[in-house]
From TrEMBL:
<dbReference type="Pfam" id="PF04079">
    <property type="entry name" value="SMC_ScpB"/>
</dbReference>
<keyword id="KW-0963">Cytoplasm</keyword>
<dbReference type="InterPro" id="IPR005234">
    <property type="entry name" value="ScpB_csome_segregation"/>
</dbReference>
<keyword id="KW-0131">Cell cycle</keyword>
<protein>
    <submittedName>
        <fullName>Segregation and condensation protein B</fullName>
    </submittedName>
</protein>
<dbReference type="GO" id="GO:0051301">
    <property type="term" value="P:cell division"/>
</dbReference>
<keyword id="KW-0132">Cell division</keyword>
<dbReference type="InterPro" id="IPR036388">
    <property type="entry name" value="WH-like_DNA-bd_sf"/>
</dbReference>
<keyword id="KW-0159">Chromosome partition</keyword>
<dbReference type="GO" id="GO:0051304">
    <property type="term" value="P:chromosome separation"/>
</dbReference>
<dbReference type="InterPro" id="IPR036390">
    <property type="entry name" value="WH_DNA-bd_sf"/>
</dbReference>
Amino acid sequence: MIREMDDFARAVEAALFASEEPLTPAELRAHVGDGGDLPATLAGLAQDYAGRGVNLVERGGRWHFQTAADLAHILRRERDETRKLSRAAMETLAIIAYHEPVSRAEIEAIRGVQVAKGTLDVLMEAGWVRPVGRREVPGRPLIYATSVEFLSHFGLSSRRDLPGLDDLRAAGLLDPVDLALEGLGGQSVLEKDEEEA
């Protein structure tokens, strides 16, 4: 049911609709001012747009309109050429997502092999990974984290929505080597990481 909107809600809706990029609440306030309760307005608008052809969603603290997932195929004019990530890129992306911020050396220590420069470049070109600074250790290595585009692409509101160990086990996505080590009484690498977190 669509509710009658006040001027503040209309301004918020217009700012979100006109923006080319998702907006943070602070950016929205810069456009519409302090004329109302922004969190309540965003929640109300999200509820109004739920179930419609366009939804108001929050991804990584930024709000934007997007086509309803079940209708996205109607709007595609061209088929995007799907580019599969290599196993190394998938492993690197998973390590960054679960351990961010993380340096190349830390990624290599977890994977047990060197990370090719091209692997991180592919993830940065996709917009899923970004450098976020330097670690305050000798050599000051770059550290990497996931981006808002990563959250949006995978339909996550935040990193807390990433599947946990039990979810991965239930989906059959754990590496057979990890499961075999666990069966021999060794501790799973994932369990060790969860305990340390």
